[in-house]
Structure formats: C-alpha cells, structure tokens
Specification:
Belongs to the peptidase C40 family. The chain has 200 residues and is of the alpha+beta class. It has helices spanning 2-38, 42-67, 79-97, 115-125, 134-137; strands spanning 142-143, 154-157, 163-169, 172-175, 184-187, 193-198. It has two domains: 1-38; 82-198, endopeptidase fold (from Nostoc punctiforme) (Alpha-Beta Complex). Strand 4 and strand 5 (184-187) form a beta hairpin. Helix 3 crosses helix 4. The chain starts with a helix and ends with a strand.
Length: 200
C-alpha cells in the first residue's frame, strides 16, 4: 500500500514542478524582452555616442557663435602715420642701398655722400623735398619724441645740429659719418640727440 502511494505521487510532483517553471518563465518573458531591446551592438553604441557628441558640439558652437561679438575693423595707427610709414620705409630702403659708399663733404650722391646729402636724397626718393643742410633739416617737418620714433625719421645729433642720420630701427641710424668712412649703421646712444623730425 505504501509503494502504491509513492508511485502515484512522483508524477504529480513532476507535473507541479513543470507548471511552476512555466509560470516563472511566463512572468519573466516581458522583462527578458525589455532587457534584450536594451542590448545593442558595440558598433551601434559607438555610432550613437558619435552622433550625440556631434549634436552637442554643434549646439556648443552655435551657442558660442551667438555670444561672439561682431568683428570690427580697426586700424592701429592714424592715416597720416600710415602714410609716413610708407614714405619713411622708402627713404630707409634708399639709405640701406647706399651702405658702403664713401663719405665726401658736400656730396649728394650717387657715388658718395655727406650726412645731410644722404638724408636729402633718401627723402627725395620717397617723394618729399627737404632742405639741404643739417641745421635746416633740424627745423623741417614735424618734431617727434623719442618714444614715437619710426623708421625713416631724421635724427639730428649734437648741440649745434651738426650731424644727421636716418632712423633704421632698433636704436640705430644710417649715416654718412665723416671723411675716411663709408655710409654705415651707427648706434644712437653714442651721440647726443638734438632733435627728431618727420619730413612726410
């Protein structure tokens, strides 16, 4: 009698276990489907990240562009200074081309120069007529403070305005120095400055 009862109970338990597993599977099916929908391939994920980053960058760029002030065209110097800059550059280029030519008193080129003859010819090349002598050049044009000196300006030296050169930048002038010397660069700090004049 005991064996018969046991024989009939085992199938019952088996069917009950299967029924429980089926019920659990049925209950978990929606959850598994949702989880599966969230799983994407690495390529898809990378593309999604790139797309998101691109949209964020475009938004940021547009935001900064809207904040950026409108470009305004400005000039660093007045028109008159710009004109002098071009003429002064021409005068300086002429003086540079004379480097190495001998000094000769009273000479105005093209083979030799004295100091004021060199400066007069340099500015004539720039289209500006200036006086012949150093003393007259010291009174010609616009006075310029040392802090505003520009290439091409005339630099007159010594208390009696006896020497003149063309400013070449970096504290140097181009001069026709004296007999026995050639047109060359000279340091301004070795000569006392009498005046700085801007012809054009």
């Amino acid at each position: 009698m005991h064996k018969l009862t046991r024989h009939h109970s085992e199938p019952t338990e088996h069917f009950a276990s299967r029924a429980r597993r089926r019920a659990v599977a049925t209950a978990l099916a929606p959850l598994l489907a949702a989880t599966t929908s969230l799983l994407i391939s690495p390529a898809t994920a990378d593309a999604t990240v790139r797309h998101t980053h691109h949209r964020a960058a475009a938004h940021t760029s547009g935001h900064h562009a809207s904040k950026r002030p409108a470009h305004r065209k400005t000039t660093s110097a007045p028109h008159a200074t710009a004109i002098h800059g071009s003429r002064g550059a021409v005068a300086l280029r002429f003086a540079v081309a004379q480097l190495g030519k001998p000094y000769r008193w009273g000479a105005t080129g093209p083979g030799s120069y004295d100091c004021s003859g060199l400066t007069q010819r340099a500015w004539r090349a720039a289209g500006v007529s200036i006086p012949r002598t150093t003393q007259a050049q010291a009174r010609f044009g616009t006075p310029v403070p040392l802090s505003r000196i520009q290439p091409g300006d005339l630099v007159i030296f010594y208390a009696n305005a006896s020497h003149v050169g063309i400013y070449a930048g970096h504290g140097k002038v181009i001069v026709a120095p004296h007999r026995g010397k050639a047109v060359s660069y000279a340091l301004m700090r070795w000569m006392p400055i009498y005046a700085i004049r801007r012809p054009g």
